[in-house]
Amino acid sequence: MTVYEELVARGLIAQVTDEKEIKELINTGKAVFYIGFDPTADSLHVGHFMALCLMKRLQMAGNKPIALIGGGTAMIGDPSGRTDMRQMMTKETIAHNVDCFKKQMSKFIDFSDDKALLVNNADWLLDLNYVDVLRDVGPHFSVNRMLTAECYKQRMERGLSFLEFNYMIMQSYDFYALYQKYGCNMQFGGDDQWSNMLGGTELIRRKLGKDAYAMTINLLLNSEGKKMGKTQSGAVWLDPDKTSPFDFYQYWRNVSDDDVLKCLRMLTFLPLEQIDEMDTWEGSQLNQAKEILAYELTKLVHGEEEATKAQQGARALFSSGNAANMPEVILTEDDLADGSIGILNLMVKAGLAPSNGEARRNIQQGGVSIDGEKVSDVKAVVTKEQIGTEGIILKRGKKKFIKVLMQ
Fold first, then answer.
1. Could you tell me which of 36, 110, 233, 403 has the fewest CB atoms within 10 Å of its CB?
2. How far apart (Å, rounded) are the C-alpha atoms in residues 83 and 73?
3. SS3 at position 76
4. Residue 14 CB: number of other CB atoms within 10 A?
5. 406 with 384: CB under 8 angstroms?
6. pLDDT tens-digit profile of 19-32?
7. What does R_g of the chain's alpha carbons equal in angstroms?
């Protein structure tokens, strides 16, 4: 099976500009390709996960990835998939987020010995002269055609700012600049980026008379058609300080039966033959498949040691055995008032609820317990003596729990 055939079999490819040429480039290791990441937060999240995995796959096959961090395009914001304008960020915030992205990407992509590049489009976009861009690039873009792009059509009714309207031109210019600087001949991205990517191939053709190619990958959607990677408390982050390795593991352990095999194919590096054997699995076997998925992805992001700890912690809790590896929160005297802490504050401190209001609702709905005993009073307090030296197990719902200890 060729590299391209494997991408198809895993359900990754959505649209391509020239399948024959793209196949040839990918299969022979001659693709110099880029994927863009706008640094809108200080961590990558599950929404970026599939792009990172694709870059890793193609690099393993001899192709050269370019990770483009959008320090310039983040100054504007991509309107794709949005119903409102993105919040404007300061240059300082963008620079901080760029540094965070670089560290996380190194876990997936080998940047040694010129095997891959990591570039920031701020290096060329922020120095452009507006009039020069209008004269040099503007004639090659049809406003009529731009307005038919899905990313703009979604926003026309609610209002599309001129600021965002320029995003397609900037992304297209990125491809044009990368082609000239590094011989980048392909761009990959999410299926919602198709119009922007076509703009880049067309600009290269018009300005340089050269062919460049684009391929989109399917978005990671669940069986209900919703984007995966969000929980009640927000996004599932790759940063262990924002989403712990245990919570990351649990997210994938709890995917629906209908989604587990799709996720195994699209995100893991397990052989397709091994995954295909799971097609006939059902019942408890599907739970085993979910464990495999959760372990493989946690290992990929956080390393084998953390993946093993997360798996052991989950098994220990649900088998009522030794829970030494379950996640912990350690309270200090500063967290207490008169030697105790309110249950609402404790749930927020432990990361089991994003706010006191949400914690209150969880308790009122009967979903909170301490050491197996349901908490029914929203004004309940937990004392230092209750926590003791062994700690207590605070649980929300069936699958969210944490061990509370005192320092």
1. 110
2. 18
3. coil
4. 15
5. yes
6. 999 999 999 999 99
7. 24
Question: Is the dihedral angle over the CA atoms 57, 61, 63, 64 positive or is it negative?
Answer: positive
Sheet-wide strand order for 400-406: 328-331, 400-406, 392-396, 368-370, 373-374
User: 10 Å Cβ neighbour count for 133?
Assistant: 15
- Residue 243 to residue 299: CA distance in whole angstroms: 14
List all residues 6 or more positions away from 60 whose beta carbon is below 8 Å from its beta carbon: none
Helix (H, G, I), strand (E, B) or coil at 258: coil
CA distance 160 to 76: 12
Residue 324 burial by Cβ neighbours in a 10 Å radius (0-12, 13-18, 19+): exposed
Query: Is 79 in contact with 40 (CB distance < 8 Å)?
Result: no
Q: How many CA atoms lie within 13 A of 150 on its CB side?
A: 9
- Reference 358, options 346, 344, 372; nearest CA is 344
How far apart are the C-alpha atoms of 189 and 217, rounded to whole Å?
6
pTM here is 0.74
The per-residue pLDDT for range 141-153, each reduced to its tens digit, is 777 677 777 666 6
Euclidean distance between CA atoms 400 and 314, whole angstroms: 10
Q: What is the reported pLDDT for 82?
A: 43
Structure tokens, 5: 């055939």
